[in-house]
Amino acid sequence: MRKVKAGRFFVYVFLIIASFLSLFPFYWMFVMATRPSAAYNSMPPTMTPGTQLVENFQKVLDKIPFFGAMLNTLILCLVVTLVVLLISSLAGFAFAKFKFPGKNVLFVAILLTMVIPPQLGLIPQYFLVAEFGLLDTLIGAMVIFFLNPLGIFLMRQYISQSVSDELIEAAKLDGCSNFRIFCSIVLPIILPAFATLGIIVFTATWGEFLWQFTVLRDPDMYTIQVALSSMNTTSNVDFGMLLSGVFWATIPLVIVFLMFNKLFISSITEGSVK
């Protein structure tokens, strides 16, 4: 019993240290968002919040269309997340429960795209989007993210082990179409995987910068990442203002995680494969 208690003690100590290391950057970002820019380089570092959070945020509002950029980012992330969830779940269902020629080859080909650095496709993707007249549009900023190989892989693995073949056969005997089986049987079972993939895609899209910076040149179409980067154009950077904008831009991610954390944790504790 003493060994068990000692083992738990070290586990809790490790978790506390890991939690501190994970949360400290966010706390420091909040501290800097409430301080003047000079506090960024102060020695010793400032670790207590100041009183300039509202003042720094007002500077952000004077510098960039913050709320418009937040709305653009929210629209982009929601559309990408919903489309990725739909395509990935349908493709995962097909790969997991249907037999068709070339299935394994096609699945491996999709997985191989995960090892290709996205920067390699930046130029051809740009010319393709420009050819369709989608530059400076949210559609152009989101269309290349609709197909997500990780999402297809995750859904395929989850469905193959969570949805039994007998259940699908029983539904077919009752006269259900494949789409009805997907909507009525598969979707309720894969909700934890949906939450996991949704959070991953939403946060990844929210933090994506390179492609958005490449195709969005109109300030009215800026996402929050591009808008914040436009404030960092001089050698004399106001870090209090910049980190205040970053702090408020992070709040929606925290809200999304809190809304879906139960399903997310449920999927993680199952190893994402039930």
Automatic annotation (TrEMBL):
Start and end residues of each ABC transmembrane type-1 domain: 70-260
PANTHER family hit by this protein: ABC TRANSPORTER PERMEASE PROTEIN MG189-RELATED-RELATED (PTHR43744), ARABINOOLIGOSACCHARIDES TRANSPORT SYSTEM PERMEASE PROTEIN ARAQ (PTHR43744:SF2)
Signal peptide start and end residues: none
Positions in coiled-coil regions: none
Membrane topology field: Multi-pass membrane protein
Keywords, in A-Z order: Cell membrane, Membrane, Transmembrane, Transmembrane helix, Transport
Species whose genome carries this gene: Lentibacillus salicampi
Protein name: Carbohydrate ABC transporter permease
Keyword Cytoplasm: no
GO cellular component: plasma membrane
